[in-house]
Design brief:
Strands 2-1-3-4-5 form a 5-stranded parallel beta sheet, sandwiched between helices. The protein is rod-shaped, with a radius of gyration of 51 Å. It has 2 domains: about 140 residues, Rossmann fold; about 210 residues, Hypothetical protein af1432 (Orthogonal Bundle), CATH 1.10.3210. It has 16 helices and 5 strands. The longest helix is centred in the middle third of the chain and has 81 residues. Helix 3 links the parallel strand 3 and strand 4. It is of the alpha/beta class. The N terminus and C terminus are likely disordered.
């Protein structure tokens, strides 16, 4: 946009029209002395031709001319140069002339003959100033209209872009929703595969998912860790589908029935689970949690012997849930065992977090007989075998104490 104030000032051009050469010359000399550029013309018809070719700041015309009246000339000049200031010079200033001049020609000023020099110069200066204001205003108006048109076009383009982005957002939301649904279906499919292969594994996976979901609601895990914990709970035992069922039954009965090679195969199932889980979720965080969910806080776990903070935090949380679910004990007994292993097998912070959510999910009730048979759907693992042995020893110790006391009392008597 061009700033009108920044345009270098030039002498204003004034057109004067009078059929009397003497009057015309006097007007011209008077105005030229004031540094105005003056174009003089004795014929209004010729003056209109000049107006068609160039612009003028002020048009001064005599009223009484043989070719046409000055008022008629100014009306025509207004059509050609609407921004020019028009001045009418007349010797007879009658009311009808004034009314016609206002209604038809929009005359800026009237000058009576004979005129006063100072009054004429002041009138012309005001007319020049009025022309500058009108011209600058027209430039600003045109620029404003141009900018408004550009703004309308920009707004229309922006609205179209926003509408397009909104459509894309809806499509992305639909795609993300579908991906999330497919992801959940994939996880459920993996659990059903586990259930089909071994119902015990399917039951454990279902319970782990429930516990992991409650633990993931804690502020102790960020969003990435929450996702890794939930997903790992679904997939952490997927590698066991490559272990023969007979070996799993022997494993649940006691590790002393397994060879070293068979124990090594079972201890590597987190690695196999990590590999299979990458086909469902290839995020590194999920795979690391699955691989480390059987690591112990004291470094005596498997498969890598990680310890303490070297074990991913979601894996430490999942390990507590795995120990609880695979224990095969009643809920109070399982909690007692988890507490007894805090600081050795399990991270104390993870144990505290787990204890906050244990009342939110119910551990399936198993009979004592079903937990001790190979073919029953008990939740068994090396940890569970250890827990059952420890609990049985504790119960035997507590039950034998009164008997020894009674025998001692009988001997004394």
């Amino acid at each position: 946009m061009t700033d009108p104030a920044a345009v270098p000032s030039q002498p204003s051009t004034i057109l004067i029209v009078d059929d009397e050469p003497v009057v015309l010359s006097a007007l011209q000399q008077t105005l030229e002395r004031e540094k105005f550029h003056v174009v003089a013309c004795t014929s209004p018809t010729k003056a209109l031709s000049i107006l068609a070719e160039r612009d003028f700041a002020v048009i001064i015309s005599d009223q009484k001319m043989p070719e046409m009246l000055g008022l008629d000339f100014l009306v025509e000049s207004r059509r050609l140069r609407p921004h020019a200031s028009r001045i009418l010079i007349t010797a007879v200033l009658s009311l009808p002339t004034i009314v016609d001049a206002i209604n038809k020609g929009e005359i800026f000023r009237f000058v009576a003959k004979p005129w006063l020099r100072e009054e004429l110069i002041a009138t012309v200066r005001n007319a020049v100033h009025r022309h500058e204001l009108v011209t600058h205003n027209a430039i600003l108006t045109a620029e404003t209209q141009r900018l408004n048109e550009q703004l309308k076009e920009a707004n229309a383009a922006l609205a179209a872009r926003v509408e397009d982005l909104e459509r894309q957002r809806k499509h992305l939301d639909e795609a993300n929703h579908q991906l999330a649904a497919n992801y959940e279906h994939s996880l459920e499919l993996c659990r059903r595969i586990l259930t089909t292969y071994d119902p015990i594994l399917g039951g454990q996976a279902k319970a782990l998912v429930e516990f992991a979901g409650h633990m993931a609601e804690s502020d102790l895990l960020d969003e990435t860790q929450k996702h890794a914990l939930r997903t790992a709970a679904w997939l952490c035992d997927l590698g066991l589908i490559g272990v023969p069922r007979e070996m799993l039954r022997a494993f649940r009965s006691g590790t002393d029935q397994l060879t070293e090679r068979e124990r090594a195969l079972l201890h590597n199932h987190p690695i196999y689970s990590q590999t299979l889980a990458s086909l469902v979720d290839d995020g590194s965080g999920v795979g690391e949690v699955i691989r480390a969910h059987h690591e112990r806080f004291d470094g005596k776990g498997f498969p890598d012997g990680l310890a303490g903070d070297g074990i991913p935090w979601p894996a430490r949380c999942l390990a507590v849930a795995v120990g609880f679910v695979e224990s095969g004990l009643s809920k109070p007994q399982a909690i007692d065992f988890i507490l007894s292993q805090s600081g050795t097998a399990y991270d104390p912070e993870a144990v505290r977090l787990f204890l906050k959510v244990t009342n939110l999910a119910q551990l399936p009730v198993r009979s004592a007989k079903s937990r001790c048979t190979n073919s029953s759907p008990a939740w068994c693992s090396p940890a569970a075998f250890t827990v059952r042995t420890a609990c049985s020893s504790s119960v035997k110790a507590r039950s034998s104490a009164p008997a020894r006391s009674r025998r001692s009392a009988a001997t004394i008597r």
